[in-house]
């Protein structure tokens, strides 16, 4: 076993002052974590709130330590906790204190007492699957989104409500470099490549990167767009008309709802499990019943839930699409931010008949500067091309050149691996904070990537009602109601963990928790 | 009077070999031109086809000289031509040759013989006003536009069909410079300005430039867009719904028709005079009759006709809009390319109640690289903002920064004045060529700016039918049918004069003329 001081120094983000000889339990967990998960070094960031560091409040420390051990996977569901006596000894606490900690954790649904056997870790309480589909709905969430954006411009507001990752964590400098080079090279002759479908070089680089990740994309069916939002809009318009019914996950990213709203279509919410994704049985039944024209889904790293559908489910989804002869618009915006080292395959990869319109973007993992998105449109390519022509005509050429050049010349994989570890640690830490401060019964998502958390609070909580006071207190978040056309997630909220939340930001988060607890 | 050699050298594009002592008439006209029109030096480019230079075909030279004198304004409608005897003497031609030239010009409708008085210049034969409005039409011109774009990528095809000016004539280097600077400065903090409505600095610079030209624009009602096409789409969606009737000029730019088509609306063609613009009486009557939801017009430097509506007509248009309480979407894309030194005022300038949605772009006169457009949306600002959010979310920030910085730091007016003179000369020369080679009865527009010509051929000509053979011959053009939802301009075509058409390109143009003449 490594000496305490040495460990503390080796582990980035670890607060050495916590590593005293008395906290062997904590050490033990950390070592376990390093052995069981390659991301553990990052996960191991001090699970304490900064206020607690001096004087160390032992009660709080034990609570934090146990929660963190469970969240990080160091203690798994079914594992038995150390005995009360052992905890007393290791943490130098009285029996009554340790018992209070354990009773609190039991009340929070994290552990359960089994008579004469001790305390056992329970299955994590993820948010429940959403209710079943009711009926197609008109969508009108954009005005709220616009209001939420106002807060993002205020640098005094901690951006837990932002849809953007901290840009400094991306590769802005290198992308800027390629943009400068592109601006130097942009010439009359290149101007004509401005026309849809976009730069051949860029389309080929996108397909090459996909191939590198084991995914087949046909560059000749790809259209370059002004960001992923345009790609989603083009895809929807290519396959459906105003009034048509579009099946979506429930909850779903409000950007997808914007695209549906923008085109006067209706959304049909399909029951969705926060761990496994859309309920395929319900989808299969709903398609003929509601005459669904298309599905608009995020099967991987869904926003806001963070799940990745299993490969077998993705294949089954393709079968369902084939049987009903309807298209899937697949938004895969967060692809590069999956925590697993094994890249997942999008549904598009299993598509043999060109029914999947695959949308993605350069903004989420590289740089939001160029605003380059794309759409591999399958059998809908020509229709998409016409719509691009009629919509925005062309995507800026220097921006296309810059992204093509970046993808050709840079080696982003090492940086991305670091970023993913960082995000994984950020989200684990943020989840700890939420579980600690939010109302009892709050359930937090366990995303497989990306940088957002979804928190489902008790049903009687109204997260929108608390919004203005929270902004006034210097923190934003996204009220859950915006993730559904029916507004069924009024008791939920989304938090961005993709920025450096400091002690002050976390204090505001704690105050939000109290605000939501007291109503 | 300047010595022949000196003049030839002083006038760019003038072929000295033509200026021999025997062609005093030509000299006389050139001097007149310089006196009567500031652009005349540019207009004065040799009006001969290059093939004719050696041996000088005197018959052809006299024809060209007279046509050019009339087109350039050196000889005005009502002016008497020199007598046959004078022409014989000056040009050292036989009486029969001079008579044949004059009879040809009379047959072409350019001059008329008055018994015992001589030959007189007739009013120029502009294309006739278009027919009256029939009924609203579904629009479906985008597939043809996409086909036309294919030819633009082929550098062996002379781009008479291009919608773009030769980019080398714009300010690419300086815009590239500002884009490089922007790429250097793009930083995390600036990322949030990415959100609609767009950069405040850019919106202010746009309003400032407008003010400098005597036009009032409110920067706070302006939304920055991905090119003018997005601005047109946003504007249409802000004021009308699928199926609604939109009044347009006839003919109108196919890009406007694309926006209507893109949104499932109907177009109502209003009779339009190639010199004065839309028929306001007909518009006034059509609005209630067809329940017109909005007008989508180019009141200034209309594409393809090139007219600028008179200021009084613009004011009357505002009155009509007010009376019927409908909005105008005003596309003013070519604003910076007006030939007159006195800037015109857009309809927006007279708008007191926020009914005009004013669209323009940086692409036409500065650089197509950044693809920055804008929309001053008046009372429809908030709706426009929501639509931008739902459509493409944001316009690339480095591009916005570059344009703002360009407008702030560069002094483009001198360059623009030169460009306008150049374009004026290009279009005059191109019109000469068309009148010489196209079927008798062809009428050519007299644009007040921009870089395109509209040619109306005899009614029985089908310009689309000749398209493929013309592409195969190495030249593109835009068939007239695409400028109307009803396809009523099948006998017309649009030519781009905004590039360096060489002898070879003009030979192809002449062959197109023969192709259209023989059917």
UniProtKB/TrEMBL annotation, chains A, B:
PROSITE patterns: HTH_GNTR. CDD domains: AAT_like, WHTH_GntR. Residues 56-124 form the HTH gntR-type domain. Keywords: DNA-binding, Pyridoxal phosphate, Transcription, Transcription regulation. It holds the Pfam family Aminotran_1_2. SMART domains: HTH_GNTR. GO terms for molecular function: DNA binding; DNA-binding transcription factor activity; pyridoxal phosphate binding. In the C-terminal section; belongs to the class-I pyridoxal-phosphate-dependent aminotransferase family. This is Putative 8-amino-7-oxononanoate synthase.
């Amino acid at each position: 076993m490594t000496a305490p001081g040495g460990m503390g120094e080796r582990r980035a983000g670890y607060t050495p002052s916590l590593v005293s000889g008395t906290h062997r339990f904590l050490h033990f967990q950390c070592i376990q974590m390093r052995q069981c998960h390659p991301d553990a070094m990052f996960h191991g960031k001090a699970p304490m709130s900064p206020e607690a560091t001096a004087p160390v409040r032992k009660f709080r420390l034990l609570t934090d330590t146990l929660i963190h051990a469970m969240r990080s996977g160091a203690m798994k569901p079914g594992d038995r906790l150390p005995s009360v006596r052992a905890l007393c000894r290791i943490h130098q606490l009285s029996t009554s204190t340790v018992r209070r900690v354990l009773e609190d954790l039991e009340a929070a649904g994290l552990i359960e007492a089994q008579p004469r056997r001790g305390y056992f870790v329970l299955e994590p309480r993820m948010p429940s699957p959403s209710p079943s589909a009711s009926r197609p709905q008109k969508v009108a969430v954009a005005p709220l989104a616009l209001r939420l954006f106002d807060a993002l411009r205020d640098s005094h507001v901690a951006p837990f409500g932002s849809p953007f990752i901290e840009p400094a964590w991306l590769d802005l400098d290198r992308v800027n470099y390629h943009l400068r080079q592109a601006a130097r090279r942009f010439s009359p002759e290149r101007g004509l490549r401005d026309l849809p479908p976009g730069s051949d070089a860029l389309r080929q680089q996108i397909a090459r990167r996909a191939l590198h990740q084991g995914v087949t994309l046909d560059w000749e069916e790809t259209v370059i767009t002004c960001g992923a939002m345009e790609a989603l809009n083009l895809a929807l318009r290519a396959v459906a008309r105003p009034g048509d019914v579009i099946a979506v996950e429930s909850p779903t990213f409000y950007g997808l709802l914007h695209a549906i709203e923008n085109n006067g279509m209706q959304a049909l919410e399909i029951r969705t499990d926060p761990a496994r994704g859309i309920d395929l049985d319900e989808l299969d039944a709903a398609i003929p019943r509601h005459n669904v024209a298309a599905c608009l889904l995020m099967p991987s790293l869904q926003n806001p839930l963070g799940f990745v559908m299993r490969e077998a489910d993705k294949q089954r989804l393709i079968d369902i699409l084939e049987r009903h002869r309807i298209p899937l618009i697949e938004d895969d915006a967060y692809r590069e931010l999956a925590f697993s080292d094994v890249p997942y395959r999008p549904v598009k990869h299993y598509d043999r008949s060109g029914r999947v319109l695959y949308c993605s973007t350069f903004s989420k993992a590289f740089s939001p500067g160029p605003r380059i998105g794309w759409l591999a449109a399958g059998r809908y390519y020509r229709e998409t091309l016409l719509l691009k022509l009629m919509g925005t005509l062309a995507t800026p050429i220097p921006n296309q050149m810059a992204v093509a050049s970046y993808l050709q010349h840079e080696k982003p994989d090492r940086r991305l691996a670091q970023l993913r570890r960082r995000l994984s640690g950020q989200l684990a830490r943020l989840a700890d904070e939420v579980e600690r401060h939010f109302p009892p019964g709050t359930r937090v998502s366990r995303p497989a990537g990306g940088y957002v958390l979804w928190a489902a609070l008790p049903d009687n909580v109204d997260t929108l009602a608390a919004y203005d006071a929270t902004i006034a207190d210097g923190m934003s978040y996204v009220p859950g109601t915006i993730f559904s056309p029916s507004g069924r997630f009024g008791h939920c909220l989304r938090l961005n963990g993709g920025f450096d939340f400091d002690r002050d930001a976390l204090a505001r988060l704690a105050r939000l928790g109290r605000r939501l607890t007291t109503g």
